[in-house]
Hints:
It contains nine helices and 17 strands. By secondary structure, it is α/β, with parallel strands linked by helices. The protein has a nine-stranded mixed beta sheet. Strands 5-6-7-10-9-8 form a six-stranded antiparallel barrel. Strands 4-11 form a two-stranded parallel ribbon.
Amino acid sequence: MTNNPYSLSDYDYHLPDNFIAQSPFEPRDHCKLMQLNRKTGEISHHKFYEILDFLNPSDVLVLNETRVLSARLLGRKKTGAQIEVLLLKQIDEIHWEALVQPGRRFRKGDSAIFGDSELMIQVVDELADGIRLIKTTPAGEKFLQLIEKIGHIPLPPYIKRPDQPADRQNYQTVYADKAGSVAAPTAGLHFTEDLLNEIRKKGIQIVPLTLHVGLGTFRPVEKADIREHRMHAEYYQVSPENAHLINEAKAHGGRIVAVGTTSVRTLETLAGDDHILRFGFGWSELFIYPGYQFKMVDAIITNFHLPKSSLMMMISAFTSLPILKSAYQAAMVHQYRFFSYGDAMFIS
């Protein structure tokens, strides 16, 4: 290890399987919380509900209110061949980008049926990176209603068990509202309604935004020099009212505390060099890695991320690669749980 912030290999680390959380902690806000000083590397260990002690009345807590789709669909072709489709992002009323398995059996022009033949998917085109452009019948709102009935919650592959009915609730934040993600904004999974109410009682503003988590977040970085990596676009939306609340707090010395890397990515996409947040919607391709100058985010609540992931690179940009590595080593010593259903960090 060289602590080279641009070398992919320096973001690798060994994590024994027993550290990878296979199910959520109950209750949500009783999981472990590591507090990390991003300048000094000093750490302390807590329970997540103690986050209340680290937030100030002048802070704004920014949440991603995206909702995870039941985006994993299991179907069959007319030949009887089994097909799996993972929806990635909606293009229009009838078209989506998706990953398919096995790819060799589901090529351009092929179709398959899902559920009790209620849903048909046809491959319209084959795109880069193994992605398929698919056409759905039915379309629009009927399609979204149907996949909630017949689809599966798309648990990450490192969760080595089938999805269960409980995952439909456990793999959503309690404030999930706008459907569109294929992975949870996992830092938000630790909040309960009671904890959010306690945060509000302390005078802290809670402001939502939306970023629909897609391939850009969970596909690994493969370039040896990470600066050559290109993120896949993810849809974001921030209202004028919420941008104003964030700007007012920032102007009066309040901290902008981002819940999760998806909130960070949205805020930094819309922040200008003047440190003012714009409002609007669009597609973010922002890749944050060491050397990036943060314009909006002052503190981050996040989980412990996969080796060689763009998320680990983002957090290294917020603190430093050596400090992050040291914190991850400490997390293993103290038996923290890693990844989506794992424990949390508060970095400030």
